[in-house]
Amino acid sequence: MSDFIKSIEAELITWRRLFHQYPELGFMEYITTYRLGKELEKLGFTIHLGEEALDHDARLGIPNEADLNEHELLAKAEGVEASWLAKMSGGLTGLVATWDTGRPGDHVAFRFDIDALPITETKDTNHIPAKEGFLSTTEQTMHACGHDGHMTIGLGVATFIATHQSSLKGKFTLLFQPAEEGGRGAKAMTEKGWLDDVDYFYSGHIGIQSLPIGTVAATTEGFLASSKLNVTFTGVSSHAGMHPELGRNALLAAAVTATNLYAIPRHSDGITRINVGKMVAGSGRNIIPSDAYLEIETRGETRQVNDYMLAEATRIIKASADMYDVSYEITPVGITEEMVCSETLIPKITKACQSSDYVKEVLPIAKVSGSEDASFMMNRVQQHGGKATYMLFGTELKYPHHHPSFDFQENVLAVALDTFIKIIEGGSQNE
Amino acid sequence: MSDFIKSIEAELITWRRLFHQYPELGFMEYITTYRLGKELEKLGFTIHLGEEALDHDARLGIPNEADLNEHELLAKAEGVEASWLAKMSGGLTGLVATWDTGRPGDHVAFRFDIDALPITETKDTNHIPAKEGFLSTTEQTMHACGHDGHMTIGLGVATFIATHQSSLKGKFTLLFQPAEEGGRGAKAMTEKGWLDDVDYFYSGHIGIQSLPIGTVAATTEGFLASSKLNVTFTGVSSHAGMHPELGRNALLAAAVTATNLYAIPRHSDGITRINVGKMVAGSGRNIIPSDAYLEIETRGETRQVNDYMLAEATRIIKASADMYDVSYEITPVGITEEMVCSETLIPKITKACQSSDYVKEVLPIAKVSGSEDASFMMNRVQQHGGKATYMLFGTELKYPHHHPSFDFQENVLAVALDTFIKIIEGGSQNE
Amino acid sequence: MSDFIKSIEAELITWRRLFHQYPELGFMEYITTYRLGKELEKLGFTIHLGEEALDHDARLGIPNEADLNEHELLAKAEGVEASWLAKMSGGLTGLVATWDTGRPGDHVAFRFDIDALPITETKDTNHIPAKEGFLSTTEQTMHACGHDGHMTIGLGVATFIATHQSSLKGKFTLLFQPAEEGGRGAKAMTEKGWLDDVDYFYSGHIGIQSLPIGTVAATTEGFLASSKLNVTFTGVSSHAGMHPELGRNALLAAAVTATNLYAIPRHSDGITRINVGKMVAGSGRNIIPSDAYLEIETRGETRQVNDYMLAEATRIIKASADMYDVSYEITPVGITEEMVCSETLIPKITKACQSSDYVKEVLPIAKVSGSEDASFMMNRVQQHGGKATYMLFGTELKYPHHHPSFDFQENVLAVALDTFIKIIEGGSQNE
Amino acid sequence: MSDFIKSIEAELITWRRLFHQYPELGFMEYITTYRLGKELEKLGFTIHLGEEALDHDARLGIPNEADLNEHELLAKAEGVEASWLAKMSGGLTGLVATWDTGRPGDHVAFRFDIDALPITETKDTNHIPAKEGFLSTTEQTMHACGHDGHMTIGLGVATFIATHQSSLKGKFTLLFQPAEEGGRGAKAMTEKGWLDDVDYFYSGHIGIQSLPIGTVAATTEGFLASSKLNVTFTGVSSHAGMHPELGRNALLAAAVTATNLYAIPRHSDGITRINVGKMVAGSGRNIIPSDAYLEIETRGETRQVNDYMLAEATRIIKASADMYDVSYEITPVGITEEMVCSETLIPKITKACQSSDYVKEVLPIAKVSGSEDASFMMNRVQQHGGKATYMLFGTELKYPHHHPSFDFQENVLAVALDTFIKIIEGGSQNE
């Protein structure tokens, strides 16, 4: 079956490099979605776009209208068809591609995230995309987390399904999810019901840990549930020398919030985290500050523990506003859940990969940290009785994710694709 | 007229020393009120006691029931008549003594405060009360602010009025006010209406500044409006190691209150002050503290500025409670207003004192600080068109007020009494 | 061998009730130590007292001199011999009793803690000590944690060793440790070297969890490393109305400390805890507070993590003092380490207990929380290659430990004693 | 003498509008200084530039090198001679122009401030500079405080002196001071000794209060001593989820600084003010913030009181850095002193203005607030026995100072100029 990989290997590289050149931020992946969609359409998949794919109101952290408009115009200029743009307009990006073999069998879902990061890519000539000429064409936007690779693997999986459909059973759902960064898009796809009757769910990440090419982790553990909030405080400015008593000090409300957020009590049920990553307040030295802005993140080992952190944070923010007699607004801009990979998939994946020429070693579990919104999809699958996992695909990492010099070894694409193919084959043949 | 002073001088000393031996805390001046009342009754004054003298609900910082009961029993044992005790029961101490000459003329009021302090008097033999044998008979209670002298002057004024009534005009009201310390009693007398038709109001203090005997200040300036609050926070205790998340931390609510109270903005309309003088919180090292207690004081150059401080403080206390999800209770335990002495009394007093053998020098104004609840009475008089002042009577002070070794020179009593007599005579004769 | 337990059962009850009637706080166990010592002397043990038993300077949280003196006089009055008192004077309580069989074999150590708590025992007649007439004879002191039982078990073990010495091998060290509460005494015994060549160390606790009589846990997990600190801040008082700028506010230093201590960042290497359990600051409402006192506790899943918490706390306390220009003093009053029981003892204990008529079930491990200073001894034993465990002995608990109504079922004494006897026998016979 | 005003009136308007079109920020007034200098040179004044005029190191809040370079290039392009630029290079802007009549008489100094503000001027056509076509030519820079008028008055005074020199006595020093905004330039001129032998010093402001044209205040009171500080905290960033304990949180150091700065105790010697006008901290939501920036201002009724505020603030900043284990840097960027106008100038000015056709009313004193660095010059003059005042020149103000629509009535220029001329004449003739 490695013949298939061989036959598609060059195309994988081409796709990946194309995606790398056109990075788009979350909920603005208009060009990306269009290119994916056209390819999948060509393969014969049924394409679900816009409000069909995503719950409009369950999205978080949607860009402002001006940015959306600008990117839609750009997409139009780049050749995205008007009918496609119409469906995606207003940040309804990403798509779901489905395939029904018509034969009884499992419903298997794969998820690939497609958004890029607000990072300016290095021009350093040691950086492969610079040396080989496929650097990001957009300032301050870069695929610095490997999602260009993830999409590529997704197209590879789709090609395999389309070309081998006669020997496959059951149904396949490929979720090309927007806005993974910040935990903003998965909930909206999940709410649409795509995962409700899925038997097996597979997602995963290139890298995370620096591992040799060919190493694959069947499951991961350690992702925390998390909430991301933006908070604004609005008070009243006043001349600090002339009328200090007339001001309503938003900066102090923000300062008190910050100090007291970190003091949220530890929780005996599990790990907690809290951070105020950014604060901007005030306008001038001699003016009582009337505005303040905070970027906050809570995490918890479980949804319940994170809910506790979020409830405490919310109360503290409100009380800080009351303390300084200012108004406040909390905007949720991201959310993830904890995830527990289905242990029963470990032997299944391990066995399936034995016949792979690309997978050298299957680790049963890899320790990670941080947060992932694939958790929403996994939890939905598991709640309905399905099995789900989040895997790692080893690559050497010279620079960490989210770094201007981030890159991965392109042969990981073949490893990941063959892993998924072997899982599909294993599933179709053995169960 | 100095013959009168001479005739009463020994009695002044006797009275003062008797009062000094039986100090009583605010709203527990049962014995003191009784002794004053019996003396004034003997002189022919009409005596107003209990709810006749004080507005029951306008009192602040009333002692707890157990303390009141104990002191009422003590008063009974000391010989206070049951009918008097019945009227004073529950902390309705102090009295108002009135005299109407039946002749048209001004209504003149004098106010004397009668309460003592929770201080244990020194036994040092250099301390005159120790040397001369009239130390406080009660542990942890002492006339350390000169109110024993004030009452004595009051009895002197009463004696003068009674013995010279035939040559006087108008009406006289002598207010023997309880609970001056902490600003707890004056409002209750004022609310009863005693000051509503007063033309001239005189009060004052022995000492404050260390000045030579014979020096009198006709007016004072600098007393601030103030509010005194006790605050309790009540949360939920929890084992700090096992279940930190189950606690509701009253200590932190109190800590946040303290920090943020001091940060109340300065006010462009005048001086402000804030203090958290006491904090007691928590029970044990490994228990999330479920209770906290604070003693707070705000001050402002004017009532409005103090109202601002109080409103800010109240909001901060509430928000701190909300922040830590604990309940709170604010108990007002004292209040004073700012006072502005009537300038027109300066020449009046200066002139009246010219004929005194005891007053050596009249200062037009003395700078003071701190707070005085006579302010309620003065403001009421002035609001109704009357004139009011708060004077100082010079004495050397070896120790400051509220010190265990505080004492004053007893001949200040004659100076103060003669000042008030000359004012009475001046008023009756010249206007 | 149950004949031995039967023969000593009445004596166990007598001992336990005597100890219960004479509770003594940490480092003031003069009478307790004397009674233990005389009993052990009688049995033929070598007794090590005072500086022989404890490192003088490694003790933490020593009572003040006045309390020590008072309790030494009391002990003298109660019949403690002068020569014993001389050795224990100044809080050098507790003792180490050693027995060498002269035959090659393991060195086995047992540790029993002997101090009581500052709690007033309930007089409720449902409380067995009340009903049966062995209530604490001392107000505000009570064996409310079961150490009266621990000592009793210790005397039982000693009696067994003395009466069965001819059939035993190796050496025995019985540590009767003072001041376990607050983690104050174990380090001082450990520093003296008693554990340095111990092969097996056993300690344990009656209760902790409410378990049926006869249930024994071979090991425990979950005790955190901890540090206990008292902190005083000393500033300068000043009249809050007159000269706020002259004060140096110790209350605010304490408030800032409290808020910021809770904000010490979580640690990725393990659980952390922080608590400010008590704050007392200030003297009067209108005085800038010149003094403040805090009781603080840090915890960490490992010694390293707790060291991190302690280092952070120390820096924050110092900076808070600097911020308010006050001086500070940190007094360490307790310390515990984390403990990891030797897993290899689980089968050993389980097997040994199979022959017991008293032990019904051996749980391999029990989850606990809180902190235990036996950890110092265990870690020392393990560092030198020995094995160590901390066990639980089941009893029904109607009230939690440290409660005025705390009590345990007295037949747990026989269970615990037989457990230790079986371990001794197993050790002597099988290895 | 009004003939002189008439003769120069058109020129005043021309000058003012030119200056208005070319606003320059503090220490970057290269073009402004050059234009002033060329004009004054032409009139015959001796010009002192660069290090002759200013103490290099006493300047505060100097722009960064890049900005200085850019503006120097701009000035060159605008035609400023290289020899002038060389002297001013690096922010040594402003100049001192002197005139010695050669005749014995007073040394009279006038000070005019020349810098603009970082404000973008409104293009609203109701705004006279827009309607009449003399808007600022530079984005984000505007004469929104009237300094364009002040300089114009200065040129008027210079023209008067030059054209009337034969009838004048004594010496004249005109200080065209850079960087008044933020209190950055006056100290540097003062340190150079220009004021050391001045007998009379006059400065003043157009507007401040909205007063009718023709109204002049002879003196002002209420300017506070002040200090302006920028503070940066530098810590260590870390992933907030993975390694919170490795971060050194600069945002929290800044938050704690802010809260505690406002809590600096009030001072019994006079008014205090404190403000943190701006805070910017952190880089991303999930990163422990490693950097923070604060803009702070302290004020005090006297230099001593402001010194107290500054000392307290400095200690709090340092302690906050220590508390969060971050480094800090305090950059003083501005300073003013309190000023007390010489009362004896009130009658002098009042009398001088009686003969003016432009001055309608002389107010003896006007209440102001805020801060002014002319205070350094005035205090220096007064310390050496001279007299000094800071005046107001009435104009209607539709918008407050520092507002994008700020403007003044241009006929105030004639009023102010005639006031100074009358003072010069009065001084030369009458004393």
TrEMBL record, chains A, B, C, D:
GO BP: folic acid catabolic process
Binding site for Mn(2+): 145, 147, 181, 205, 402
TM annotation in the entry: none
Matches recorded under PANTHER family: PEPTIDASE M20, PEPTIDASE M20 DIMERISATION DOMAIN-CONTAINING PROTEIN
Keyword Manganese set for record: yes
Tree of life domain: Bacteria
Cofactor note: The Mn(2+) ion enhances activity.
The name this protein goes by in its record: Aminobenzoyl-glutamate utilization protein A
